[in-house]
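Ops channel
N.P.: pipeline sanity check, posting one input/output pair.
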């Protein structure tokens, strides 16, 4: 079991705030996130797809008066575009939109991006 004292929690929150505040503008954040994806050998089509979604997020932020990106802004944007749909009913496009915003949130908060874990179908073993 893991335990945290208030000092640990404060350090975690402070490190996340420092990372988010490291980016002066939303464009700087998205440009650096795209460069980071490229450094991880993501394909140009994937990076372009993420960048287009980030651009739509930026439009949403401007229209709604959001001055600085944080994960809350990403969640509100996703709620607007996906509505109240159950996860299992999301279209591929909606899942990709969620992934793009998750990638940006991860990068803004930590400077890295978590690898997504694809669920593997159970393998049936037909042994002797």
């Amino acid at each position: 079991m893991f335990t945290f004292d208030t000092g640990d929690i404060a350090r975690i929150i402070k490190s996340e705030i420092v990372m988010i505040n490291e980016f002066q503008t939303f464009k700087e954040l998205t440009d650096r996130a795209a460069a980071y994806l490229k450094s991880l050998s993501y394909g140009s089509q994937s990076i372009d797809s993420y960048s287009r979604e980030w651009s739509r997020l930026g439009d949403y932020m401007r229209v709604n008066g959001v001055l600085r990106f944080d994960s809350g802004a990403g969640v509100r944007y996703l709620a607007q575009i996906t509505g109240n749909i159950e996860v299992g009913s999301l279209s591929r496009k909606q899942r990709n939109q969620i992934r793009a915003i998750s990638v940006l949130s991860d990068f803004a908060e930590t400077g890295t991006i978590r690898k997504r874990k694809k669920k593997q179908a159970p393998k049936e073993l037909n042994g002797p």
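N.P.: looks fine end to end. The first helix runs from residue 6 to 21.
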